[in-house]
Amino acid sequence: MAARSPRAARNAGELRYRLRCIDKLGHGFQGDERLLDVGCGDGGVARLLRERVREVVAVDLEASPNWVDAPGLQFWVADGEALPFEDASFDLVHSKDSLHHMSHPDRALAEYRRVLRPPGFVLIVEANRYNPTLYVQMTVVRRHDHFNRARFKDFVRAEFPDARFGAFDAHYVPGFGRLLGLQHAVEEALERLPPFRPLLSYNFAVAVR
Predict the structure, then answer these.
(1) What's the rounded Cα separation, in Å, for the pair 41 and 63?
(2) Angular region, 22: left φ>0, alpha ψ -120 to 50, beta rest
(3) Averaged over 77-89, what is the pLDDT?
(4) For residues 56 and 112, is the Cβ–Cβ distance under 8 A?
(5) At what angle are helices 105-115 and 149-159 packed, to 10 degrees?
(6) With 90 as the cut, is the pLDDT of residue 4 above it?
(7) CB count, 10 Å around CB of 57?
(8) Which of 124, 111, 208, 203 has its CA nearest to residue 163?
(9) Strands 116-127, 202-208: parallel, antiparallel or unpaired by DSSP?
(10) What is 6-22+31-76+87-197's CATH topology?
(11) From CA 159, how far away is CA 129, in angstroms rounded?
(12) Mean pLDDT across the stretch 46-56?
């Protein structure tokens, strides 16, 4: 069997990471939903979400050269704090690592609620401020205002009182593609050990409108 190229290994690692960040939410997609992906970045996660729903509209403040519209997939330049969509336009809103970039994350959450049609769901993932592998890079170097778990829950509950919260561990480590099995085993083990749960890399909320 031919060895995987470094690029294939890198792509496998990134794909595993992105799928894990969706699967760990434990949300049952029905397949016929219209989903809004806020803060979509390069659009890679939006494309994966499109495989689970009928239609995805993905937005970010700046366009990416990787954006390519496709059947059931559209990319828009838009602000998550002032979404250019009518009330009750979507069945699902997905938001990963977006809120901590916003000047007023409370406004964004209010917008998520506004564009959801009842009983729509919002799926929110945010990096944990106190994860030891992320703190220096994201908080000290990049000066992102990541949320700790308590602050994250308070923000979400203000707009979505009926929310389910959880945490998981997931990382994309460039150059680690050939050791994905080991990485997966370590992440799963950390999630099962109570002392490590407050330090897991991501907090999430799944809430109904």
Answers:
(1) 8
(2) alpha
(3) 97
(4) no
(5) 40
(6) no
(7) 22
(8) 208
(9) antiparallel
(10) Rossmann fold (3.40.50)
(11) 22
(12) 98
